[in-house]
Amino acid sequence: MATLLTHSLQSRYAALQAERERSWAPAQLEANARQRHILTERFDPAAIAQPGDTLPDFAFQEVDGERLTLEELTRDRSALFIFFRFAGCPACNIALPYYAETLYPELARRCIPLVALSPQQPDRLREIKTRHGLPFFVATDTDNQLASHLGIAFEPDDRPAPPPRGWIGDVTGTGTWLLPQPAVLHVGPRRKIRSLLVSPDWLDRPEAEEALRNIV
User: Which tens digits make up the pLDDT trace of 107-160?
Assistant: First the structure.
């Protein structure tokens, strides 16, 4: 699996941060870093869903029209779910192509489906799958139902009232500030959680090797 080390996700995020330090105003940089720090400090691993928990049979709308359910995806096999924020999120546009290059081929070899989930409405979410030619499912977690059940949904601390034009609820089409923290969820047969890797700092997401660990 040594090939997965090439162009790591960490190195791609380091390049994104370096570009932001060159182009962003100091106040914007500080606000971004502050929110990531707050979410990291606030994160409690004991407050999220745990391995061994059985999930309800949630349903998701795939951007190409297919209806997916946890029951069907894990009837006699594992499935892996990648939570991301929305189609225009710069960090997500780095993570999903990275997982397509490094994670998806190994999962496909093992006949394990990969599903990327966002609360964004399907018609708006389709853009990220098309832009990168993603070979796996991209689907809507309507109203953050699964993310909320797992305990990984959050609202940004800076929420102006009334919301400004182009706020998160406008972008996602949900009308709310709620977003999932980036996460990798491994669900085994009969909807039992095998692992849940959460990234409160959205610029520190699991490498492919970590996501694949213990997946059979």
Answer: 999 999 999 999 999 999 999 999 999 999 999 999 999 999 999 999 999 999
32-59 burial code (b ≥16 CB/10 A, e <16): eeebbeebeeebeeeebbeeeeebeebb
Number of residues in the chain: 216
The residue behind tokens 């394990």 is 112
Find out whether the peptide bond into 90 is cis, omega within 30 degrees of 0: no
Domains of the chain plus CATH, in order, are: 51-212 (3.40.30.10)
- Which residue has tokens 């870093």? 33
CA 95 to chain CA centroid, Å, is 8
pLDDT digits (tens, 9 = 90+) for 79-115: 999 999 999 999 999 999 999 999 999 999 999 999 9
Q: Are 113 and 136 in contact (CB under 8 A)?
A: yes
Neighbours of 106 (CB within 10 A): 17
Stretch (H or E) spanning 182: none
Taken in order 46, 52, 53, 56, the sign of the CA dihedral is positive
Give dist(CA 4, CA 204) in Å, integer. 17
